[in-house]
Amino acid sequence: MIKDNKAACGRVDIGGQAVMEGVMMKAPKAIAVSVRKPDNTIVTKLKPYSSPADKHPWMGWPFIRGIVSMCTMFSMGMSTLQDSTDMLGMLDEEPTKFELWLSKKLGKGVDKIVMGTAVFLAIILSLGLFFFLPEAVASLLKKWIHQEWLVNLLSGIVRICLLIGYILFCAKVPDVRRTFQYHGAEHKTVYCHENNLALTPENAKQFSTLHPRCGTSFLLIVFFISIIIFTTVGYFFEAIGLPITNVFLRFLSRIIFLPVVAGISYEILKGLAHSNGKLARILRWPGLQMQRLTTKEPTEEMLEVAIVSMNVALYGLPEGCETTPEGYTIIRDYRITDPVLRNEIQPEETVAPAQAETEAEETEKAE
Fold this sequence. Notes:
This protein is an alpha+beta fold. Helix content is about 60%, strand content about 5%. It contains 13 helices and 5 strands. A 5-stranded antiparallel beta sheet has the order 1-2-3-4-5, with helices on both faces. The longest helix is centred in the middle third of the chain and has 32 residues, at about 110-140.
């Protein structure tokens, strides 16, 4: 159990991620994942976290930390999705013969095979949709447009349009729309914590679902910065007599310079998020509007899940709670995870529904 996070977390940014039927929250020393099961209970998992900069201080240097953050968040995101699907029991169905064969050949569990395949396909889709396709369009445009900056601007606009279209398409899927609601719950809970209010659904729901440190805003900044960086790179190679005209070379150059783009974009995101100046508000406005596509208004039940994750990441797992056979902690009332609010819970409120029903029947028989 992690108990020493409260003091540390009050002065730093708390990050999060929406997952299937739940929310992940990351504090400086812990990560908590909480999901709501079909029986309406919340199950949560806590694991320690150590920033790469804790072991290697240079990884916390400006610009470099953006590259490190991009890599760690990708890995953490996949791990968190795996945790949430395990906690919901989404992979409990019988594996196919192909999955069993692949698992035997590779010496890994079926769940890791399924998740690994999904990650591989997601990477291929992302590279093809957001990198290769826009560069193919740019190569066609260069036949008619000879200004490098204009070609890069148009390819960047194509990339942004593809992103918006992809999000709108995904939003049509009911499960994805619910995930967008949990995304909104995550943001509202983070706002509530940042404003030093008690973490309750009533307090959290008054805040916006749009947060300046959101990954959606980061993506939009990446796309804008990429236009500037790739235009500069194009001018440089033209100046030395090696213009990049081949679509595959353009695609390769974008991949090579992606860490540079990520490092600069991260610093811009952090700077805009922690400034209330007029210029900062203007510059972060597009990213906030983009979040209207990826966040939706959550229900109070969703806010409770986000609050559980926040509290567990900050204060550790509450004592005396039941656990599932897999070892996940069962939360029947979100207040039990708050060191202050747990004192408001009446003893009968912590009784499991099945146990309460049995006790009620025994009382009736006694009467």
